[in-house]
Amino acid sequence: MNIIEVENLTYSYPAAKSPILRNISLTVEKGDFLAVVGNNGCGKSTFCKTLNGLIPHFTDGDFEGSVKVDGLPTLEADVGTLACKVGYVYQDFENQIVRPTVLDDASYACLNYAMPDYIKKGRQALSMCGLEGRESDYIWQLSGGQTHLLALAGVLSLQPDVLILDEPIAQLDPGHAGKIYEVLKELNEVHGKTILVIEHHTEYIADYCKHVMLMRDGGVAWKLPTAEALRRVEELKECNIFPPQVTIAAHKLKQEGKLSKEQSLPTTIPEGKTAFRTFSFYPDATPKKKQAAAGEAIVEFRGVSASYRSVKGDDRAVFDGLNLEIHRGEKIALIGSNGAGKSTLMKMMVGLRRPSAGDILLGGESIQKMGTEQLSRSVSLVYQNPEEMFIKDSIRADIAYAMQVRGVKNWSERTDGLLARFRLTQLQERDGRLLSGGQMRRASLAIGIALNPQILLLDEPTANLDIATRKEIMQTLSDLRDITETVLIATHDMQLVCEWAQRIVVLCGGKVVADGPRDAIFGDSALLTAVGIRPPEIFTMGQALDSRALCYTIEDFLHHFKELPQ
């Protein structure tokens, strides 16, 4: 039975020169778990908003064709009626949280519909989303992953048959990302919900989704079973969609004639174990070069404690006696689950938060004795949401601002140089808030290094970006090595961690639970399990074949695994 039926759908935004959706015809069966993929601007979010009636009832424009959900034409129903059929969790899900406590928020939609059993429906939705027992908590007591689940519970309380989630794991650590998908799996398999996810992380698509729909230039190129879809390696890469790493590795081996043409490309780790069963691990004959010793300590956390005030109950402790040294010239990745304190640590380094106990030294001097201007010349923080870095009406003005107000000589020439280095010259008169995700990231980095800080802090520099744009930002970060001598990145992006960082610091429970190079961190399976770290898929593939293998990239894997002689 088809629960979604789309015929000849074409849509143009108001004043747009051309349609964003072009003649789409599609059916989705009841109980499907469908991944919607495609490059930026291809119309994924626009298409999904036609399913819950936001287009064209809320966002006007030229709408042609028909969209039916459970037999109901969306043009004939209002948004309120459609919300009971299609629940939508947006990428900026925090904006869907409207009430102060968990149960109050989960049941609010049902209260708004004057349902007498709104509390019961809210409790049921919380239970289905794994939030049972948190009903009386304030929303600010939740982690990022729990807040996302609360947004899901809010739409689920209306008991829609269809759930749509736009980039459901973009801002989450691997542990919470897995939790989100396990909840979606149960909603799909146990409760019969039809689920659509707009997703870039193909390893999750391979593990959880039943079908994949590729959108290209406003149309639907195809809708296929997941395994068949992810094996279309070249076609997906042309659309800036990167199949699972295990699939790409097998594809390259096939191209080189090292894997049988009859062998199906694997899309998951278990399939990879079968596909690579005739391959063996060969360690490097020469030992790895030792990294150069780090310079002197330029930042020292000495017994630092920090907490957030709580309206209800005790203050929430983030750090309790934290000790940490950052040395000159280091490239450090700071990792840990949502709420582990990564952003708080960075904010303390630039004076935006003060420790409740202990001290932080910069160059041997307490930062509590330093003024904001003195700190800003030594330490610069680039925020997770780059739009928060833009205060002027053009990129050029934003980059130049800090230099101008501090009387930096030749600020105009330096602005020209930064625009050129970050490939922003052609965009310099554009408002930064109106740029694409990748362009905003590059612009925020240019602003961050404008004053030539000794230490650059980056909070989730690849969050909310598609895979292609993430690769672009990773290259930009590599280019920073000759600009800023010490860089600290807080991130959930394990591929970024593996390819960029020289040192990895793991935070958990207000303390540093691990600190070292990538082999020490990712080679410790007990640590990975305890902290909820999900290594890059190709690393897990190598470990599944041979516990000695520490392969962080596809190139590492292909270098170390060779087919056994016949």
> Could you give a short account of the major beta sheet?
6 strands, mixed
Q: What's the overall average pLDDT, rounded? A: 89
Q: Ranges with pLDDT <50 over ≥5 residues?
A: none
Distance between the termini: 50 Å
The order of strands across the largest sheet is 6-7-8-3-9-10
Quaternary form: single chain
**Strand fraction band?**
15-25%
Name the shape in a single word. globular
Would you give an account of this structure?
The chain has 566 residues and is of the alpha/beta class. 36% of the residues lie in helices and 23% in strands. It contains 23 helices and 22 strands. The strands form 5 sheets. A 6-stranded mixed sheet has the order 6-7-8-3-9-10, sandwiched between helices. Strands 17-18-19-14-20-21 form a 6-stranded mixed sheet, with helices on both faces. Strands 2-1-4-5 form a 4-stranded antiparallel sheet, covered by helices on one side. A hairpin with a 2-residue loop joins strand 4 (62-69) and strand 5 (72-73). Helix 4 crosses helix 5, helix 6 (144-156) runs parallel beside helix 7 and helix 11 (245-255) crosses helix 23 (554-560). The longest helix is centred in the N-terminal third of the chain and has 16 residues, at 174-189. It starts with a strand and ends with a strand.
